[in-house]
Amino acid sequence: MPLGERAGDKSESRYCGVETEFNDDMPHLLSFNIHGGFDFLVAPLIDPSYRPSLMEQDSSGSGALPFAGSDLVLSPSQWSSHVVGKISSWIDLDSEDETLRKDSEIALKQEIAWASHLSLQACLLPTPKGSSCANYAKCVNQILQNLNSMQLWLRIPLEKSDDETRNPDHMGEGHTDTWELWNSFRLICEHHSQLSVALDVQSTLPSPTSLGRWFGEPVRTAIIDTNSFLTNAQHYPCLSRSHQRLTTAFFSHSIQVVISGKPVHNPPMASLESSASSADNHTEGGWRHPLKSYLDYLAYLYQKMDPLPEQERFELGYRDYLQSPLQPLMDNLEAQTYETFEKDTAKYIQYQRAVSKALLDRVPDDKASTVITVLMVVGAGRGPLVRASLQAAEETGRRLKVYAVEKNPNAVVTLHSLVKLEGWEKLVTIVSNDMRQWDAPEEADILVSELLGSFGDNELSPECLDGAQRFLKEDGISIPSSYTSFIQPVTASKLYNDIKSHKDLVHFETSYVVKLHRIARLAPTQTVFTFIHPEHSAKNSNQRYKKIRFDIPPDTGSAMVHGFAGYFDATLYKDVHLGIEPSTATPNMFSWFPIFFPLRTPVCVTPNTPLEVHFWRCCGSTKVWYEWCVTSPSASPMHNSNGRSHWVGL
Ligand SMILES: C[S@@+](CC[C@H](N)C(=O)[O-])C[C@H]1O[C@@H](n2cnc3c(N)ncnc32)[C@H](O)[C@@H]1O
């Protein structure tokens, strides 16, 4: 399907559409453009001169006169696969002129009803004419209530300018940032999941920070006018560097590109192209669509993109897909979950480095052959940290005695066979028990664990390690020695709509593990909670509270916060760390996707007012949970009070 997602498929050029003028010979229009290399048309369905109020009443009394051609001119699959309906651009539902307003409402409803009848996948709605769009949005909202699966793409010029440089043709008074226009419209339509954006790319672009906001919005298509192209030395169209970057970002976010406008470049093939005014010419040798050089340039940009690394390709199916975090304490993990962990060599390399450094610090060279270090892997799973620890001992020439403690009896079965297979019987003792209950026969020099969730402490590592600390020597080392969680506000309309589709409170008060892709990060991350191990101070409970203030960078403009992306960073030992916080993330590590804390009602933020958010880590006798709320720029309700919707079992 031309409008389907093809992210990651580098085998051919991306699907690309063309915006056309009205043509009552639709079969001709379609074949001309499809043969010209385009995948779909954005075409008016109705003659632009049509006005409901100008239609003569049918004197025979047989009802409405036809306002469009027959649906039979194309096959149903041609309509739905190759045509996006362009709603008449004269439509102005917020006009002062009542006749125009009424005509607009009738025409909009007729055109969308006609497009639904044709089973089109999408319609392009014209840009709101003034700064007020209430009546237009109200009418679209009514339509959305009873619409089939068709998407409505609201055409929004990509513009954010200072007052002096504002383009008055595009926006009504008072609007310097077209994101605001989109935001008013979608708020009136209550974030309807079938309302999305068609960005009209202009020859000048807003700042990268301001552009970034759109990648968390439901942008389905980007319309690039031929006037936005520059001319290269051979007279071919090309894009400025910033336009190239933007177009590449559209491709990697599965945003379809549409070329619009008349050809304004004259590459050497132009003489051939100009003969293409008739559909009869389209199969003749050498014929080129008049916009082919623009299409070729976009295909070239697409092909030039770096191929996705193998891991990213593997993760494509997880992009923006909400998953419940693991409950490794309450539940027993399955074999395939362990298998996924074990493939993540980057993680085990870091652990091996940390254990090596700890062994070298603990045992001086002259005692290497005599001192035996007691190392306990608590939460050993199927053994990869046991292996990493033994490799560290070998690498450093230190002697180890290892205890592998694991509470999942199924993983213990595999541990036994691993120890036998590797001939580690003399080195490794397997303990099938919960580390919080086990009576260790001796104390450990080093306690190695990996009980971390995407938000660090969210899989209850603090509670487990508090239990295990009993059998760590007074001067013993915990690997990790600390971990910290981080959050940042994000625009994430796709995640918000997915959560909203459940129509309940529980889903809005749950944190999710998710491979974030179609999001905009609105401010740098800030730290939330830190845990240190071993924790010798009895007064330190694992409850936490943090108030965090984010300042939205000045050139961003206003933006919508749908929730908070969360990450962690762990110090394994001294300078050896492991984590997914974007600015310091461990390269090539894939065991953790970020976490997402949603907001029940998205909050609009501006650079002038700080965004203030509060996070609590609450502990009960049987469960641990988070609560969160926003207090600036406006107050949100408390999320997940008393862990009523989401918690982690102890
Ligand atoms: C995230 S997995 C890591 C497994 C393994 N170390 C690895 O890297 O593949 C955590 C493991 O700790 C175990 N675990 C969690 N809490 C535990 C506890 N209180 N006592 C013993 N094992 C525990 C889980 O069953 C699971 O096997």
Automatic annotation (TrEMBL):
Task: Site Critical for specifying symmetric addition of methyl groups: list residues.
Answer: F341
Q: Which residues cross the membrane?
A: none
GO molecular function terms here? Answer: protein methyltransferase activity
**UniProt keywords, alphabetically:** Cytoplasm, Methyltransferase, S-adenosyl-L-methionine, Transferase
The PRMT5 oligomerisation domain covers which part of the protein?
A: 482-648
Active-site annotation: E450 (proton donor/acceptor), E459 (proton donor/acceptor)
The entry's cellular-component GO terms read: cytoplasm
GO BP field: methylation
Kindly give the SUPFAM superfamilies that the UniProt entry links to this protein. S-adenosyl-L-methionine-dependent methyltransferases
Q: Where in the cell is it found?
A: Cytoplasm
- Record-stated family: Belongs to the class I-like SAM-binding methyltransferase superfamily.
What is the official name of this protein in its record? Protein arginine N-methyltransferase
